[in-house]
Specification:
- The complex is a heterodimer.
- Chain A folds into 3 domains: 45 residues, no CATH class; 182 residues, D-Maltodextrin-Binding Protein, domain 2 (3-Layer(aba) Sandwich), CATH 3.40.190; 165 residues, Periplasmic binding protein-like II (D-Maltodextrin-Binding Protein, domain 2, 3-Layer(aba) Sandwich), CATH 3.40.190.
- Helices cover 43% and strands 13% of the residues of chain A.
- Chain A is built from 16 helices and 11 strands.
- In chain A, the strands form 3 sheets. In chain A, strands 1, 2, 3, 6, 10 and 11 form a 6-stranded mixed beta sheet that branches.
- In chain A, helix 1 packs across helix 3 and helix 3 packs across helix 12.
- The radius of gyration of chain A is 22 Å and the shape is globular.
- Chain B is mainly alpha-helical.
- Chain B folds into 2 domains: 214 residues, MetI-like fold, CATH 1.10.3720; 290 residues, MetI-like (MetI-like fold), CATH 1.10.3720.
- Chain B is built from 23 helices and 2 strands.
- A two-stranded antiparallel ribbon of chain B has the order 1-2.
- In chain B, helix 1 runs parallel beside helix 15, helix 1 crosses helix 16 and helix 3 packs antiparallel against helix 9.
- The chains are: A alpha/beta, B mainly alpha.
- Chains A and B meet through strand 1, helix 4, strand 2, helix 5 and helix 6 of A and helix 16, helix 22 and helix 23 of B.
């Protein structure tokens, strides 16, 4: 808490009147100031309705959000309503429509679950409320030191415009009943499919998971992956990406439906994995398989694996639009979602199993113990097994990859 | 009369023409590059150019046109075939009675069920495997989401056949077709010939608008095309939707330009069909009046029609049944014919989640259907009291505009406008937008019967009770209660199924069962999708049943009604 007080000192303009006060006293005052500022937010939030626009395609996630909503209702009298959306782009579009109609207040979205390209689009078009996460008490618990993706969202600086909610890492799931030894990289994936033709695919781009798979392949196949952190305009995209397309040309005939049709989403792939149409699927949640086994969405023969040189990882966030109607309520909910209690519940495999954004050393002993006592699901890898987390390429790569992919495979 | 006319023009204009025109305009502006709020927004033709230089555009357009034409034309021809061949046969009552339940099935629920049934890991294959097929794992066959959009065409076709049959029956009631057929038979026309030469030309003018509406719908449908259609590339409507939802906000301009192209496409196709129709009419004139040529009926026709009817019914029945089984399953793996573990969990959970959406759906459906009926009855009463023939009523064009113009081509604009006037996200605006789409169907289903009503009953009643209003309500409306109730059910079902209008106008605040279904269908946990699709089906089904049962109960003692 002391640390937080110091941070606040830098940000508030108390200094002139406080010169005579000693450092420790000063930080206490700042802390009190901070507390009262936060108390003001809490007071203002009371009775507000927060429309939380979050992807609604997963029952387990929806259940978790309902739980969190009930908690903040009980503790802070904030009424959170999840608007179940199919596509975050939809919501960005609606906020844009509001901006173009000059609606500066009373917007329809109070809070939005977001990351990557959508965040960049909102940031670039000034669709976000001003920086807020530094004001949230629980933000101090976030592991910004060891989880760089909490500060750089697909290389776009977060600038306190969105609150980290959970960590994601690309993992693969395989059905051990049909496929005992999983591939270890893109080349062995190709070899595996030669004897298991049609039992893997990835969602058609521009689907988020599809794009991620292609980025992973690119990462593994380029000569020097360092180029990926540069804006795509500064490199020779044709040359750099050539090995990727050569690889995909080989891969596609071996895919599900011979690469003529693609699954719609990673969620559909999970269903196809259950149906034995696929032997390998992918997910952004390392606990996905365990969670799905726990609720019988997948059989218990499913296991998780990653590629030997690491897989892409990122953070997902929640952001407040510039014209949100219940900004205080949205902040209260965002703060709650970053609390040790909410993060612990979220990390529980039977609930959602989404990895925490918090730093263990910033929690108290009891909280730390609760986190370490979490039982990994049968199909969940330990953090050592999950291996190296590769950083997302510069966000400008997505558009270039997508365009080239569509021109080759969806024309 | 003049006063009344202008009143109708104002009402009709406010409710229909204005929102659509403004919606179109507000879509066209971004199509030419103007979208305030977006950085670097200025007038240019680059959005249109971008649409045509996008690598998916041409294939997508071809897929959209081919699937829409195949679905519309085959559904139309099959519905005519069924009506002609099964007319007054043993299967006629079955045909008539199956219309309501088939219409009650929402397009989306039907598509999801169809996939569960016919996919390589679907229920059919599970029954046959492994005993008959030898498959321990599902074969890698491209059945749904095929690259030629054939499964999409078939899905749409199956869903439009009952609608065309309903329209055909309604058109048949417009004139004394029994007499026509009797006379034709006495003149040695075969049944088929009498139907094609004497009946069809008389009903076609009533089927023209439904035909165009189905074509426009099939071209621009998004939810069904996502479930059944191809995805590399997808149909043009899905592509437009992807552009509207693209992470790069500048794709909105592309989306708006694409939506305008879609409108042009609909206009071109409808014009083509209209021209073709005129040409065929001219060419067949001689043949139509040349009298009977074949006097024997070929039994093949009837057999083919019977098979078609059974296929439609069985596919629909088993699609919905597969949803039903999935909704109670806990674990169901290939090739088990039935779930290995059952559960009520997903139904129980859905109930808690759906209380609010169900309420909203019911309120929106009932309000928009009731409003639509009131407007229809006012219009029709006006029409019948001034004896205005259906063809020449000027509001027909306006009424049908919303179902002829593809939704996707003006909803984005409507959204922009509602936001500007701070009207989006309220249940009233959603009801209003639903009304725009519901009214044409209410009018389509009610107008024939209503205009045919023998007003001598009404005149008699006015003489007896001395009150125009009492006579109108107690005699005319009561006598027409059955068709009015049915029309209400159709209108309600149309409202329940609306996806894009609820999405764009509800601003996420007015949640409906269909919005929930599509959101969860994107997640594709089969069990949850099944439960939600069934909820989406049950509301209209319940209303259809009520619309059939309630009049029967009321008129138990009045069999002639």
């Amino acid at each position: 808490m002391l640390k937080q007080g110091r941070v606040m000192l830098k940000k508030t303009a108390l200094v002139p009147t406080m010169v005579a006060i000693g450092l420790s006293g000063l930080s206490t005052v700042a802390l009190a100031q901070n507390d009262s500022a936060w108390q003001k937010v809490l007071d203002e939030a009371k009775g507000q309705s927060v429309y939380f626009n979050a992807w609604g395609g997963s029952d387990t996630i929806n259940d978790y959000i309902s739980w969190a909503a009930a908690e903040v209702k009980k503790q802070y009298q904030v009424d959170v309503k999840q608007v179940k959306i199919t596509d975050t782009g939809d919501v960005v579009s609606r906020i844009l429509a509001e901006k173009s109609a000059n609606r500066e207040t009373g917007g329809s979205v109070d809070l939005i679950w977001i990351n990557g390209e959508n965040f960049k689009a909102m940031k670039d078009n000034q669709l976000l409320a001003k920086a807020y996460t530094q004001k949230l008490p629980n933000y101090a618990l976030v592991d910004t030191e060891n989880k760089p993706s909490t500060l750089y969202d697909f290389t776009t600086p977060v600038d306190n415009l969105e609150a980290p909610w959970g960590m994601a890492q690309l993992v693969f799931m395989h059905d051990t009943k049909h496929l005992a030894t999983p591939p270890t990289d893109m080349h062995s994936l190709l070899e595996t499919l030669k004897s298991n033709k049609g039992r893997f695919s990835y969602p058609a781009l521009p689907n988020f998971h599809g794009t991620t798979f292609i980025k992973q392949a690119l990462h593994e196949l380029v000569e020097d992956s360092a180029v990926l952190s540069q804006p795509v305009s500064q490199v020779d995209f044709e040359t750099v990406s050539a090995p990727l397309w050569a690889y995909l040309d080989q891969l596609h005939p071996l895919l599900w439906r011979s690469g003529k049709s693609f699954p719609k989403s990673a969620q559909q792939m999970k269903q196809l994995l259950n149906d034995s149409e696929l032997f390998i699927s992918l997910s952004f949640n390392p606990n996905d398989a365990s969670n799905a086994i726990a609720n019988d969405e997948l059989p218990n023969t499913i296991r998780t694996y990653v590629h030997k040189n690491g897989t892409l990882g990122n953070t997902h966030f929640i952001a407040i639009p510039f014209n949100a109607n219940a900004k205080a309520g949205a902040q209260v909910f965002a703060n709650f979602l970053m609390s040790a209690k909410a993060q612990l519940k979220k990390a529980t495999p039977a609930v959602w199993g989404d990895p925490t954004v918090l730093a263990m050393n910033k929690l108290n002993a009891q909280q730390q113990q609760a986190f370490s006592a979490l039982k990994l699901g049968v199909a969940t890898l330990s953090s050592e097994q999950l291996g190296k987390v590769l950083l997302e390429p510069h966000s400008s790569w997505v558009a270039a990859i997508e365009k080239a992919w569509i021109a080759r495979y969806a024309n | 009369m003049l006063y009344r006319n202008s009143l109708l023009i104002i009402v009709g204009g406010l409710v229909f023409a204005l929102p659509i025109t403004l919606g179109l305009l507000a879509t066209w502006l971004p199509a030419v590059g103007y979208l305030p709020g977006l950085k670097g927004s200025e007038f240019s033709s680059s959005a249109l150019q971008a649409v045509f230089s996008h690598p998916s555009t041409y294939s997508s357009l071809i897929l959209s046109v081919s699937s829409a034409l195949i679905a519309t034309v085959s559904a139309f021809l099959l519905s005519q075939w069924l009506c002609m061949s099964l007319y007054r046969s043993r299967l006629w009552p079955l045909l008539k009675h199956s219309i309501a339940p088939l219409l009650a099935i929402p397009h989306l629920a039907f598509s999801v069920g169809l996939v569960f049934l016919i996919a390589p890991s679907g229920w059919l294959m599970r029954w046959l495997s492994p005993t008959l097929t030898g498959f321990a794992i599902p074969p890698d066959w491209l059945i749904v989401n095929d690259n030629y959009a054939l499964s999409l065409s078939v899905g749409l076709m199956l869903k439009e056949i009952p609608f065309f049959i309903l329209m055909t029956l309604s058109a048949l009631s417009h004139f004394d077709h029994r007499k026509t057929l009797r006379i034709a038979a006495s003149l040695h026309y075969s049944h088929v010939e009498a139907w094609v030469k004497l009946i069809f030309p008389q009903i076609y003018s009533q089927l023209r608008l439904p035909l165009y509406a189905v074509l426009s719908y099939s071209l621009s449908v998004v939810d069904v095309a996502i479930v059944l259609g191809p995805n590399a590339p997808a149909t043009f409507a899905v592509l437009i939707n992807q552009w509207f939802n693209h992470t790069d906000i500048h794709y909105r301009l592309l989306g708006a330009a694409g939506a305008s192209v879609m409108l042009m496409l609909v206009i071109v196709l409808i014009t083509l069909i209209y021209t073709l129709e005129k040409y065929l009419k001219k060419q067949s004139k001689q043949w139509l009046v040349a009298g009977p040529k074949v006097s024997k009926n070929s039994p093949i026709f009837a057999v083919f029609a019977k098979i078609t009817l059974y296929v439609v019914l069985l596919l629909s029945f088993f699609s919905m049944s597969s949803l039903f089984v999935w909704s109670f399953s806990r674990q169901w793996r290939f090739p088990d014919a039935w779930p290995s573990r059952w559960s009520l969990k997903y139904w129980e959970k859905s109930w808690q989640q759906l209380i609010e959406p169900l309420q909203n759906t019911a309120i929106i459906g009932v309000s928009s259907a009731l409003l639509a009926l009131v407007i229809c009855i006012v219009l029709l009463q006006y029409q019948s009291s001034f004896k205005i023939p259906i063809k020449r009523s000027w509001w027909q064009g306006l009424l049908y505009l919303p179902i002829l113009v593809p939704q996707i081509s003006f909803l984005f604009g409507i959204q922009v406008l509602l936001v500007r006037f701070n009207l989006e996200g309220s249940i009233a605006s959603v009801i209003w937008v639903h009304l725009i789409f519901v009214l044409p169907y209410a009018y389509l289903t009610l107008s024939q019967v209503y205009l045919q009503f023998d007003d001598r009953y009404l005149q008699q009643a006015i003489i007896l009770c001395q009150s125009k209003w009492r006579a109108f309500v107690l005699v005319k409306l009561v006598m027409l209660f059955k068709p009015i109730a049915f029309s209400f059910a159709v209108a309600f079902a149309v409202s329940v199924a609306q996806y894009l209008p609820s999405l764009y106008v509800g601003a996420g605040r007015v949640n409906t069962v269909t919005l929930e279904s599509v959101a969860l269908a994107s997640g594709s946990d089969a069990r949850v999708s099944a439960v939600f699709a069934l909820w989406q089906f049950m509301l209209p089904l319940f209303v259809y049943i009520a619309a059939i049962v309630v009049p029967q109960m009321c008129f138990r003692n009045r069999r002639e009604l």
